[in-house]
Amino acid sequence: MSERSDLSEASPGRPPLLQMRGIGKRYPGVVALDDVSLDLRAGEVHVLLGENGAGKSTLMKVLSGATTCDTGEVLLTGTAIDVSDPIKAQRHGIRAIYQELSLVPHLSVAENVFLGHAPRRGFGMVDFERMRADTRRVLESLGTSIDPDAPAGSLRLAQQQMVEIARALAACARIVIRDEPTAALSDREVNSLFDAIGRLTTDGVAVVYISHRMAELFRIGHRVTVMRDGRVVTTRPITDVTEPELVRLMANRDVSAHYPARSHARGAELLRVDDLHGGAIKHVSFGLYAGEILGIAGLVGAGRSRLVRAIAGAEPVAGGTITIRGTETRMTTPRHGVDAGIGFLPEDRKRQGLVLKLPVQHNIALSHLRQLSRAGLLDTGRERNEADDAIARLRIRTPGRDQLVVNLSGGNQQKVVLAKWLAAGAGIFIFDEPTRGIDVAARQEIYLLMNGLVEQGAGIIMVSSDMSELLGMSDRVLVMRGGAVQAELEGADATEARVLGAAFGMAS
Predict the structure, then answer these.
(1) Rounded to the nearest 5°, which phi and psi values hold at 491?
(2) What is the tens place of the pLDDT at every residue in 112-134?
(3) What is the pTM of this model?
(4) Strand 319-324 with 269-278, pairing
(5) Phi and psi for 95 in degrees, rounded to 5?
(6) Alpha-carbon torsion 446, 448, 454, 457, what sign?
(7) What sign results for the dihedral spanned by CA atoms 212, 215, 220, 222?
(8) CA distances from 105 to 110, 117, 133, 178, 452 (A)
(9) Mean predicted confidence (pLDDT) in 256-263
């Protein structure tokens, strides 16, 4: 966004558009929100910041009607309103756009934008011509020219986000909640998204913005509210705080080193990929060694995730070989990957790495049920002991091993996925976007765990869209472009300029 709206900052004394007062929410054994108050001004981007588990998502679920609060009230322009379900919240102009988008893929863009309130003509028939025209007008107001007739499922993620914003505008939203909107976007797509948010605030819409990418908060935000342990710590103009100060406020401690140092020597080759090809993967070859973190960089669509999924047996290939510790290994199903000692922590851990409605204990056991069974019966005692050991070893914050994984924060869910593979005896780990949706302090815990793995002789392949993470954690970096390895950069040679140059296909 080239220039953000200063409407809220220009009139700091104006009455708030929306107020949340004394919001409280309890779950069994957990106080999620404790007397939380928050106000939003028309035309501002209000950043909501906090570690995973701080309560910010629960607070926004209360505001959007997805969760009912136990105590407190919500006021719009000074009048108490009912937001006890999403329909009621939407009637008051409150719209939430989550990280997992809610478009109907087989419907057109226009049908998604006006879903539930399509314009009508005689005899109650949908006026498709008007719907397409209104959709085109709203999209153009956001600076995008997406075809209203295109199936929503055919769009890139960034375009789908624009459609979600258009849907909010078409419904006359006054408050828009954005949760981790840039997690999988390129820099150019982020700029387009910020431009669209700038247009919203210029029109007087209040935007609540949740993200763990610190740099972008200072680009787009007007005010910031920091939450910790279910309470509001402070609300300040974004210009009055620094990144280190925000980290301290979130963590209640000084998190000084984003990428903790480690000392280890590269060991024997654990994994060798030779001429792997098929689909989006174009004749890729490389090795992974004990005691190293191998980073994989590239633009969205470069084939990074397809490559690591193929190595883990979750993506079909046409040819090439994968050799594990000197033995060529057939890798056509995820079971082959598990049997070969590969632990795969996918980008979408909620859908592909965990069973959310199962407890921590069962999720950890899923990767090696055969080893935990005797005569076909699960040894529940071993399963419990293994879960308790993992909770203590990885410092998983949970009331106990029986807690459902869906109730854990993102950082702790990631630890459960890691615990699952450690319990299965994995020695090669693939982290696809290891800290996506994880707060700053929890990220450092994940980094320390990764360092501990390689210092014990494991090898790690790490796919990351976060450049500082990629450079801060990797011993080597492979840069992919168009499904092929464009460059391999060692240590100090892996600079941001060289990685980006290779990703864009420019000569170094």
Answers:
(1) 40, -115
(2) 999 888 889 888 898 999 999 99
(3) 0.60
(4) antiparallel
(5) -130, 135
(6) negative
(7) positive
(8) 12, 18, 20, 20, 42
(9) 69
